[in-house]
Amino acid sequence: MNFHYQGRDIHYEEYGQGQPLVLLNGVMMSTASWKPFVQAFSAHFRVLLIDLMDQGKSAAFPPGYVMEDQARMVLALLDHLGLNKVFVLGTSYGGALALQLAILEPQRVERLLLAATRAYTDPLFRDMCEGWIHATASPQAFYTATIPLFYGATWQQQQATWMAQRRELLESTAFSNPDFLARMKRLIASIMDFDLRDRLGLIRCPTLVLAPEEDLVMMPWEQERIAAGIQGAELLRLPGTGHVLFLERPALFVSLVMGWFAHRDSPQVL
């Protein structure tokens, strides 16, 4: 399905019934990235998948948009669908977007799960982003600048053959596609001046922050910053896990998501 926004199409998909659960993508993800999880999540929730501006089946957008623009697009889509209160799960870029969403309209987000994300583009991450933009000059450079950082050292040591196959696939398909790389440059640029550090206290909903200890992109200390800034937030550290934790540990990821969103009532302590 498509939603018309600022004269361009935004692709979205819906599955299941019940309380709406919005899944927000990482920068290289799309609605297709969530397909392995749709069956489990849609058995309990009305799952909303969105290709963000410049992602997947959504239209290309002019350069210059920032995270707040992405958030206002998502809010416009929620209005279009008549969704007043939603659960939100965001990973990486999508987690930063989830934070922006919950700050713009805190009454809209009933419960929040943030996986390997950030509230602030510090100098280290900004340099990393600049490196990714420059690396779009070649498929090989873009792969080596990005993917080895996304997977944890434990995973890469255990899955060397899979990683080699992944490299061959990406370099010959998406990373050789000029349209994909142009979109990546605009998406990466949209988070380079991102800073919500002083506004995290505006978020009032129950929040769970997942902190993979082998995350070399968003960094464990950034998850600690987010959890400390949101009143009552829970922080869960995940040893032996990298940035793309939902790919490395899918069974654990599903368990955490279902536990956080489906079992909301605290047990009585006797």
Detailed description of the structure:
- With 270 residues, the chain is α/β, with parallel strands linked by helices.
- It has a single domain (2-122, 194-262), classed as Rossmann fold.
- The chain has eleven helices and eight strands.
- An eight-stranded mixed β-sheet has the order 1-2-4-3-5-6-7-8, with helices on both faces.
- Helix 2 (67-81) crosses helix 3, helix 4 packs antiparallel against helix 8 and helix 5 packs antiparallel against helix 7.
- The longest helix has 15 residues, at 67-81.
- It is globular and about 45 Å long.
- The mean pLDDT is 96.
Name the structural class.
alpha/beta
**Which fold name corresponds to the CATH topology?**
Rossmann fold
Strand content: 15-25%
- The radius of gyration over CA amounts to 18 Å
Strand order of the largest sheet: 1-2-4-3-5-6-7-8
Domain unit count = 1
Mean pLDDT comes to 96
Could you estimate the helical fraction of the residues in percent? 40-55%
Any guess at the CATH architecture?
3-Layer(aba) Sandwich
How do the strands and helices of this protein lay out in sequence?
Blueprint: E1 2-5, E2 8-15, E3 20-24, H1 35-42, E4 46-50, H2 67-81, E5 86-91, H3 93-104, E6 109-115, H4 123-135, H5 139-150, H6 153-158, H7 160-172, H8 178-189, E7 207-212, H9 220-229, E8 234-238, H10 245-248, H11 250-262
Parallel strand pairs: 3-4, 3-5, 5-6, 6-7, 7-8
Antiparallel strand pairs: 1-2, 2-4
Helix pairs in contact: 2-3, 4-5, 4-8, 5-7
